[in-house]
Write a structure and sequence with these properties.
Number of strands: 23
Distance between the termini: 56 Å
CATH architecture of the largest domain: Distorted Sandwich
CATH superfamily of the largest domain: Glucose Permease (Domain IIA)
Oligomer: single chain
Largest sheet: 7 strands, antiparallel
CATH topology of the largest domain: Glucose Permease (Domain IIA)
CATH class of the largest domain: Mainly Beta
Structural class: mainly beta
Length: 306
């Protein structure tokens, strides 16, 4: 283990060498040594004395609320909680006097967003990168999950961090982990390196935001093009958890999207038959799914019918 910010600590202390007026003896920092706590270093002085220096511990609560639903066996926490049991809305303080740090996990263009994709719900955003690109913890927190490809499947090498406000961030397809389960991390700390592991069509970071185990569009929180937070306080609304509710929709549009009826195509289904079954029209089904009325339906295909 090495002492993070080691050279910063030396520079800060050396720049203000202490002078004892009575004896006129200069006391300067010569070096630092790591401790078992990566956020604390031992500073060695020129007069053969030493001192402990706090490099800034992550602001992570250690109360029962923080560990509610804590699970290191399952990737997704709160499996027994349904979306219907969640509050209509909850206010999440992303940056305040306690949660004062944020660093973009990565900056770049979102290639694939929070949506249905190839018959599967895609619960995060994909951002292309070069293999080996450092991936940073977005906020202070504690690592709940570290998994390799064999254990995490499509996620590839995965890190999940829980934050003091109850938010969890997921970092998938990593080439390498840089943290351990149960480890405290600060915003901006490298938790892994970008890769192409798991179910991946090219090197990218798969990034998710979840609350009580339920995913919502990360772009509601972060502008990945600039790397900036959209706001310091995020009001998370229950209808945001629907896969059809994404950043850019108004609340009215989001609620309407969350109330959509979805039909999975079975053998013998036709657009006319589905229109009659769901009391709608063929043209409306085609409009909702951005498809032609002449398009052949596939078994297993998911169609928005209302």
């Amino acid at each position: 283990m090495f002492c993070i910010n080691r050279y910063v600590a030396i520079t800060i202390i050396s720049a203000s060498c202490m002078v004892t007026a009575a004896q006129n003896i200069e006391k300067c920092a010569l070096d630092t040594l790591p401790t078992e706590d990566k956020y604390t270093c031992v500073v060695l002085f020129s007069d053969s004395t030493w001192s402990l220096v706090d490099l800034g511990h992550p602001q992570v609560g250690d109360d029962d609320d923080f560990y509610d639903g804590w699970n290191t066996e399952k990737i997704h926490a709160f499996k027994d909680v349904s979306i219907a049991q969640l509050p209509e809305e909850v206010e999440l303080h992303l940056i305040d006097s306690i949660n004062s740090r944020y660093v973009a996990p990565i900056k770049g263009h979102v290639r694939s967003g929070f949506m249905f994709r190839r018959r599967r719900p895609h619960h995060g955003v994909d951002i292309p990168l070069v293999v080996g690109t450092p991936i940073y913890a977005a906020f202070d927190g504690k690592v709940r999950i570290v998994r390799n490809t064999r254990q995490a499947g499509g996620y590839g090498n995965l890190v999940v961090v829980r934050h003091p406000n109850g938010l969890e961030t997921y970092y998938g397809h990593l080439s390498k982990h840089n943290v351990r389960e149960g480890e405290l991390v600060k915003a901006g700390e490298i938790i892994g390196y970008g890769g192409n592991t798991g179910r991946s069509t090219g090197p990218h970071l798969h990034f998710e935001t979840r609350y009580m185990g339920k995913p919502f569009d990360p772009q509601r929180v972060i502008d990945f093009e600039t790397g900036k937070l959209r706001d310091t306080v995020f009001v998370l609304k229950r209808h945001y958890f629907n896969i059809y509710s994404h950043y850019g929709l108004t609340d009215a549009e989001s609620i309407k999207a969350a109330e959509r009826q979805i039909h999975t195509v079975r053998s013998g289904d036709t657009l006319g038959g589905l229109a009659r079954k769901y009391h709608t029209t063929v043209s409306n089904i085609c409009k909702l799914n951005k498809m032609s009325a002449k398009k052949t339906l596939r078994i297993g295909q998911r169609l928005i019918v209302r």
